């Protein structure tokens, strides 16, 4: 029973810390009402994405010393304080940058670490499916968050009011579920020293794979609503597009996580990143209307969501479940670097050309490169296996 409570708790914690993926709706409010530039809005978003993988490295090193409950408690505190302070900022860029970007990033990283590593220790035989379930919570969060944003804005509240509400409510939810998340008594996770952890070819493949895959998605999703607005799509359709992206970001990890348990993570990574590459290309190539915007938002979210379950599954498969919590945060640094450069480059290209066409083409190529790395690896491994037999 405890292992199921752990999965459920991890899912709900992810629902809270995953609200960052509704950033395109927050971004448009900050730009329209508080004179943020596109680059400034994406800098806050990119800082969250950059900080939380670094926080996971800290969590991996001190998990045994502090315990998962203490890490979850710290997640709730940092997340809540960051959002509440931002809500009281009067729209000051530097306060929001520190509050949501830095403190929110730390809270997100701690919650994400606990939620993605702990359930996998209970279900070693179904790592793909279980990791997919918890990561799906991270994806679904933006759907819930975007609905909350729309309803609160319609009711007359500002985005700053929303920050305060989210800081209080989400903090309470995380604190509640920390009581039900535990590690197995048989867990033998050990801290890897600098002498035993080597940066080899397997690590480099995972690191650059997640960098290329998430760079492409992050370049686009932080500005998804703005991309639609360039094509004069109605605000209601823009909100639907962001929500549909979130639903796809929820269902993608479930689909690819379950599929990877049968056909392997490498070929699934190629399929997910190919889908993402083609969808992002058409986002810039087509003259979008409401239907194509919503459809492409779904496909991008479906492929993008696959990154997080598949790279986690592959890391656990290659390095072992007991070392997963130590090594995966280092793999995830590829995502952190993508979080810095992806949104900033997207914002820069928009400010430079006043459209997102070039940003879409750039992101599409990056996603395709990431997918080809794993396709080539899959083909080589099959050839090697056939030669040995």
Low-confidence stretches: 190-195
Which range does the strand content fall in?
under 5%
Secondary structure tally, helices: 15
Instruction: Supply the CATH superfamily name.
Output: MFS general substrate transporter like domains
Number of strands: 0
Label the structural class.
mainly alpha
Q: How would you spell out the order of helices and strands?
A: HHHHHHHHHHHHHHH
3D shape? globular
For this entry, give a set of tags.
single chain; 389 residues; mainly alpha; Growth Hormone, Chain: A; 15 helices; globular
Question: What is the topological layout?
Answer:
Layout: H1 2-17, H2 23-34, H3 38-66, H4 68-87, H5 93-122, H6 127-154, H7 159-177, H8 201-221, H9 224-230, H10 235-263, H11 265-285, H12 290-319, H13 324-331, H14 333-353, H15 357-388
Helix pairs in contact: 1-5, 1-6, 1-7, 2-3, 3-4, 3-5, 3-13, 3-14, 4-5, 4-7, 5-6, 6-10, 6-12, 8-11, 8-12, 8-14, 8-15, 9-10, 10-11, 10-12, 11-12, 11-15, 12-13, 14-15
Summarize the structure.
The chain is mostly helical. The chain has 15 helices and no strands.
How would you portray this structure in words?
This protein has 389 residues and is mostly helical. The chain has one domain (2-179, 186-388): Growth Hormone, Chain: A, CATH 1.20.1250.20. Helices cover 83% and strands 0% of the residues. It has 15 helices and no strands. Helix 10 (235-263) packs antiparallel against helix 11, helix 10 packs parallel to helix 12 (290-319) and helix 14 (333-353) packs antiparallel against helix 15. The longest helix is centred in the last third of the chain and has 32 residues, at 357-388. The N and C termini lie far apart (43 Å).
């Amino acid at each position: 029973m405890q292992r199921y409570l752990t999965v459920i708790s991890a899912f709900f914690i992810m629902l809270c810390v995953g609200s960052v993926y509704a950033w395109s709706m927050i971004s448009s409010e900050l730009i329209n009402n508080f004179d943020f530039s596109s680059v400034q809005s994406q800098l806050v978003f990119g800082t969250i994405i950059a900080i939380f993988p670094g926080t996971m490295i800290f969590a991996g090193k001190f998990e045994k010393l502090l315990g998962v409950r203490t890490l979850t408690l710290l997640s709730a505190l940092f997340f809540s304080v960051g959002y509440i302070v931002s809500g009281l900022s009067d729209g000051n860029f530097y306060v929001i940058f520190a509050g949501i970007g830095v403190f929110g990033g730390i809270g997100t990283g701690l919650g994400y670490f606990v939620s993605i590593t702990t359930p996998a220790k209970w279900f070693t035989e179904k790592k793909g499916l279980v990791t997919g379930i918890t990561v799906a919570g991270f994806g679904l969060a933006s759907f819930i968050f975007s609905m909350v944003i729309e309803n609160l804005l319609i009711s007359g509240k500002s985005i700053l009011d929303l920050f305060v509400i989210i800081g209080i409510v989400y903090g309470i939810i995380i604190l509640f579920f920390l009581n039900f998340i535990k590690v197995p008594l048989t867990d033998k996770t050990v801290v890897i020293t600098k002498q035993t952890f080597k940066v080899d070819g397997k690590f480099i493949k995972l690191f650059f794979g997640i960098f290329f895959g998430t760079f492409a998605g992050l370049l686009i999703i932080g500005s998804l609503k703005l991309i639609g607005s360039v094509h004069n799509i109605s605000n209601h359709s823009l909100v639907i597009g962001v929500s549909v992206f979130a639903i796809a970001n929820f269902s993608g990890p479930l689909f690819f996580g379950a599929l990877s348990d049968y056909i392997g993570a490498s070929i699934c990574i190629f399929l997910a990143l190919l889908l993402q590459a083609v969808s992002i290309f058409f986002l810039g190539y087509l003259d979008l209307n409401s239907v194509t915007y919503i459809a492409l938002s779904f496909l991008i979210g479906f492929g993008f969501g696959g990154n997080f379950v598949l790279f986690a599954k592959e890391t656990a498969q290659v390095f072992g479940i007991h070392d997963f919590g130590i090594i995966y945060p280092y793999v995830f640094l590829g995502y952190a670097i993508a979080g810095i450069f992806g949104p900033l480059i997207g914002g820069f290209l928009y400010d430079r050309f006043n459209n997102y066409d070039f940003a879409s083409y750039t992101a599409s190529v990056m996603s395709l490169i990431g997918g080809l790395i794993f396709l080539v690896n899959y083909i080589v491994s099959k050839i090697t296996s056939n030669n040995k037999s």
